[in-house]
Amino acid sequence: MGTAELLQQLAEARADAGKRSDLSEKWKQDLRAHGAWRLDLGASSVPLLYHAGHAGFRARFRGTAGIMATSMTEPLDIRRKRLLFRSWHRGTKEADLLLGSFAERHLAGFSPAQVDRYESLLGEEDADLLAWIGGRAVPPAERESDVLRLLLAFKYAPRPV
Q1: What is residue 19's three-state secondary structure?
Q2: Does residue 94 lie within any of the structural domains?
Q3: What confidence tens digit (pLDDT) does each residue in 45-55 have?
Q4: Contact 94/58 with Cβ under 8 angstroms?
Q5: Does 138 reside within a domain?
Q6: Count of structural domains within the chain
Q7: Which of 4, 108, 144, 159 is the 20 to 30 A CA-CA neighbour of 41?
């Protein structure tokens, strides 16, 4: 039996094959309600589920992830909590410890404009941030800000046990 015959049998076995159900619309509504979106990049690509700040998405689509769609309308304290979580869950242990500790120490005192700048910094790759913090690379001029200067001057200290 060839591939074509097998596909034909599968299509016949499932009468609704290839048809969209009402569940897909409900699925989209549920995702939108929880801050996630389904990105369909064409017929030949696999649809991707994007949830703001997801490190795997950020790695594949640089510059499009990390900024939450609701960030401008959310209350500041909720944004700070989200950014604190994202700082502690970067994808590498080194970045988690540095950015998480930095956020715990400074995020509560940031103005709304500083919160915006910190959020945009979190959109950068871990490797780039760690290179800037470690002095192995110079940050680009467009990233220069008071928040970046604070981050570069930050000295990590383990939490007391």
Answers
A1: coil
A2: yes
A3: 333 334 444 44
A4: no
A5: yes
A6: 1
A7: 4
The CATH number that applies at residue 104 is 1.10.150.250
Residue-number span of the structural domain to which 139 is assigned = 76-153
Query: To 5 degrees, how large is the angle CA 71–CA 35–CA 147?
Result: 30
> Residue 118 above 80 pLDDT?
yes
What is the per-residue pLDDT across 123-161, written as a single tens digit (0 to 9) for each?
999 999 999 999 999 999 999 999 999 999 999 888 787
Phi, psi of 137 (to 5 degrees): -145, 155
Residue 81: inside a domain, yes or no?
A: yes
Look at residue 108 and tell me if it is in a domain: yes
Q: Hey, what are 77's tokens?
A: 């304290």
Can you give the length of the chain in residues? 161
How much is the pTM?
Answer: 0.56
Structure-token match 């939108």, residue found: 32
Q: Which residue has the higher pLDDT, 72 or 106?
A: 106
Q: How far apart (Å, rounded) are the C-alpha atoms in residues 10 and 4?
A: 10
Residue owning tokens 């076995």:
13
Q: What are phi and psi of 129, to 5 degrees?
A: -60, -45
Distances (CA, A) of 3 to 7, 8, 9, 10: 6, 9, 10, 11
